[in-house]
Write a structure and sequence with these properties.
- The chain has 502 residues and is mainly alpha-helical.
- The protein has 19 helices and 2 strands.
- Strands 1-2 form a two-stranded parallel ribbon.
- Helix 14 packs antiparallel against helix 15 and helix 14 crosses helix 16.
- The longest helix is centred in the first third of the chain and has 34 residues.
- The radius of gyration is 28 Å and the shape is globular.
Length: 502
Amino acid sequence: MDTEKQSLIAGVLSKKRNPEVQHNTDVISNHNVEKPSQQINSLSEFLELIGVGKTQYISWICGFLIGYADYTELLVISVIIPYLRCHWQLSENFEAAISLCVFGSYAAFSGIIARFSDVYGRRKLLILNSVVVLAASIVAAAVDNKWVFLATRIVTGSFVGGNISIYMSYSVEICNKEYRLLGPISSNVGSVVVIILINLQGLLILNTIGWQWFIIIISIPLVLKILILAFAVDSPRYLLVSNRQEKLNATLHRMARLNGKDLTPYEVKITTIEDTVCQQRGAFMDIFLPQHRRNVVALSLSFFSNIFMEFGLVILLPLMLSSLYCGATGKPPPHTCNHLTTDDFYKLTFSGIVAIVAIFICMGAMHKLGRLITIRVTSGGIAVVTIGLFVCVSGSFNFAIIMFLKFLEQAANTAMWTTAPELLPTTIRSSAVGFMNAMGKFGGVLGTTSVYLLFYQSPSALISFFFVVQVMGFISSLVLNTESKNMELEDIYDEQEKQSKT
């Protein structure tokens, strides 16, 4: 009896431990654990996979604030110079020295500071530069001394130039090919919104609480920029070329989480390096290797011409408004202590609206026609329209000509900033963009200085000089030979390598 009971119990236990049931359980368990079904080997594939989300939105907000805050620090000169002229009894030479030092330091140091980001990283340098610019602005407002003001403008120019170059590189490194142009566009929109708001702020503040409070108030976006940069991700392409694999993996997973993309079905193992020639980070002379030289030189001269016009107009327009300028054949009245009128501020504000329209039309043109055609058409248009500044029909006519020039200049500028960082590999991207930016700002120095030196002496010589420089810019645009529209960064460098061998 006991033996029968034991047999019965053993049979029941045996059924409970049926190996077939156990096998089915293992199958279900294995089915619930999803194994990677696809391997991601390049950053371009990864960026296509995660698409657009919070990672890119944070970057574009940073871009807007970088464009806004940094250009505010540059353009504040054109708004407050009439007030500083009266406050400190500035001479023409000292006014020219302020502009020369701001744009000269920008040109001299933007390439150097941008190169540091190829060596030490993008986000780290963006935050450091922003802190320095904020400190310089506070000192400029706190100390009522023209020499201290001059010194702080030198510091501001140096670090603002690096900031913009670094961001343009960073923006293309975290987006797929379809959305790469939105980084430079966000920064450019920020820079032209400055034109609108800084003049409205000037109208409300300069004639009420003074230029020192004006500087403090317009520096508030610098604080916002620093705070938002703290939440931005590091550049994955920089981490790849600097061989920081652990940090790269963490950054990629953070980007995926921010964009709401589940990486479980994928094995992310980035092994593809963009460029096998330029492997040393920040090697400045590599930007002149055969596969890069032609585009780097052509874009540098195009930037020179474009920013010559951009900064020249920044100084020229307020002077024309305050002096009732009418064509290059006339001569403005002598250098006097004249403030801008309310109507003048409205006209300066309108120039910002024109620039914003130009950016979005340029975006559509680049999407439909490509980068190169957009650069060439707008550069050629600037040269042609400059001729209109020789004519004295009326003050309104000359203002309309300048608005048309502003439209074309801003469109060309947007297309150049979009194209430049796409044409260079990550190891030397910021160094190259910084060099092009520096060349552009040397053009800005020449443009602003020529306005100060020639506007009150020979307007016809000034406009002739503007025309010659713009013709040079158009010719340079014809030399560009790499169209980066709808191309992965890796494919762009392969194409340049082939072009250099033909």
